[in-house]
């Protein structure tokens, strides 16, 4: 399932070079993942407070292709690429208004029991999202 998030590069997100700092890319990708969770019917607040489960990033790989500058309007595409037993992989792409790829990321996360502090099987909402992607 593909979920999009739109945003604009703000002044605090830029560095002395006049472009978006690499740390902000990671932050924006995280925001887009939360939007993806909500889009598949898996709101993070409910997971944490009621179900006592969460997700933990165990691997993040990012390729920066082009700079983003102050005022640029960006779209982050997030899609489920793979589901394993306890982990899943999301692919993300940040594009600008000209449809140019700004950055690409691959994030592997594990489902995590917040009480037991250990990995658990991937939840049904993510498995269902995999089915809707095929």
UniProtKB/TrEMBL annotation:
**What keywords would UniProt list here?**
Hydrolase
- Please give the Gene3D superfamilies that the UniProt record associates with this protein: Hotdog Thioesterase (3.10.129.10)
CDD domains recorded for this chain?
4HBT
GO MF entry, a single one: fatty acyl-CoA hydrolase activity
In the record, the note on similarity to other proteins reads: Belongs to the 4-hydroxybenzoyl-CoA thioesterase family.
Q: Which PANTHER family match?
A: 4-HYDROXYBENZOYL-COA THIOESTERASE FAMILY MEMBER (PTHR31793), NOVEL THIOESTERASE SUPERFAMILY DOMAIN AND SAPOSIN A-TYPE DOMAIN CONTAINING PROTEIN (0610012H03RIK) (PTHR31793:SF27)
| The protein, known as | Thioesterase
């Amino acid at each position: 399932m593909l979920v999009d998030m739109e945003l604009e590069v703000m002044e605090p997100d830029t560095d002395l070079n006049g472009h978006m700092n690499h740390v902000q890319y990671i932050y924006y990708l995280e925001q887009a993942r939360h939007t993806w969770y909500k889009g598949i019917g898996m709101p993070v607040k409910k997971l944490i407070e009621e179900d006592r489960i969460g997700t933990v990033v165990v691997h993040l790989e990012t390729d920066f292709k082009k700079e983003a500058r102050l005022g640029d309007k960006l779209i982050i595409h997030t899609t489920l690429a793979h589901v394993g037993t306890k982990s899943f992989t999301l692919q993300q792409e940040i594009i600008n208004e000209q449809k140019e790829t700004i950055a690409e990321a691959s994030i592997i996360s594990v489902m995590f029991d917040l009480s037991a502090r250990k990995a658990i099987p991937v939840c049904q909402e993510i498995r269902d999202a995999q089915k809707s992607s095929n």
